């Protein structure tokens, strides 16, 4: 199902996500240290709380409620990440990270030497389109700080255990820096 740029913007400003618009604060479902299943290498994973998409058979349904989880100081998360010298990168998952684009962009900006991977139910094309609008500053800020985006809604009919770091075959791994330069999704293998 294709979602319009207007719908992406509305969903990314969903009620309940406003708490995460407070500078220095992010609403999380949880944190995972030393994950080897949420991207290449050893990763620190930040699971955002709140998702407007609510994909059927979602792997993380407890993350859908925008009022669930807990508010955390971004500085505390950065300190945990910076204290682990073995990390290969940081992964943003959810929930929907773009529903808290301001907070996740702030977190990514404070981790300039870390590889950032992000899962989103929105496609790169939807996010890129929205980022080009006058109201797209938040989405543009987050996109510009991501190295790899795994995009697209989880589709239980296309579920797979064979696609590395993806839940269904419709999802793509996108080189975000290259894609932003070319104005279109550039797929990569993970």
Please describe what this structure looks like.
- By secondary structure, the chain is of the alpha/beta class.
- The chain is built from six helices and seven strands; from the N terminus they run αβββαβαβααββα.
- A seven-stranded mixed sheet has the order 3-1-2-4-5-6-7.
- α1 crosses α4, α3 runs parallel beside α5 and α4 packs across α5.
- The N terminus is likely disordered.
Q: What characterizes the major β-sheet?
A: 7 strands, mixed
Assign the CATH topology.
Answer: TIM Barrel
Q: What is the architecture at the second tier of CATH?
A: Alpha-Beta Barrel
Oligomeric category = single chain
Poorly predicted spans: 1-19
Number of strands: 7
Query: What's the CATH C level?
Result: Alpha Beta
Order of H and E elements: HEEEHEHEHHEEH
Write the layout of secondary structure elements.
Elements: H1 5-11, E1 25-35, E2 43-48, E3 70-73, H2 74-82, E4 89-93, H3 101-109, E5 115-120, H4 124-131, H5 137-143, E6 148-151, E7 172-175, H6 176-182
Parallel strand pairs: 2-4, 4-5, 5-6
Antiparallel strand pairs: 1-2, 1-3, 6-7
Helix pairs in contact: 1-4, 3-5, 4-5
Describe the structure concisely.
By secondary structure, the protein is of the alpha/beta class. It is built from six helices and seven strands; from the N terminus they run H-E-E-E-H-E-H-E-H-H-E-E-H.
């Amino acid at each position: 199902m294709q979602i319009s740029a207007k719908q992406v913007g509305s969903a990314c400003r969903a009620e309940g996500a406003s708490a995460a618009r407070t500078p220095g604060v992010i609403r999380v479902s949880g944190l995972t240290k030393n994950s080897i299943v949420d991207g290449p290498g050893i990763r620190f994973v930040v699971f955002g709380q709140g998702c407007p998409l609510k994909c059927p058979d979602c792997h993380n349904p407890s993350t859908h409620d925008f009022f669930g989880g807990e508010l955390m100081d971004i500085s505390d998360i950065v300190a945990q990440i910076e204290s682990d010298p073995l990390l290969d990168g940081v992964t943003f998952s959810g929930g929907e990270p773009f529903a808290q684009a301001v907070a996740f962009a702030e977190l990514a900006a404070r981790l300039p030497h870390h590889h950032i991977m992000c899962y989103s139910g929105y496609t790169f094309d939807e996010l890129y389109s929205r980022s080009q609008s006058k109201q797209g500053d938040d989405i543009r800020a987050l996109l510009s700080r991501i190295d790899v985006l795994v995009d697209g809604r989880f589709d239980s009919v296309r579920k797979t255990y064979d696609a590395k770091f993806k839940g269904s075959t419709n999802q793509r791994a996108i080189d975000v820096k290259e894609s932003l330069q070319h104005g279109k999704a550039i797929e990569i293998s993970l």
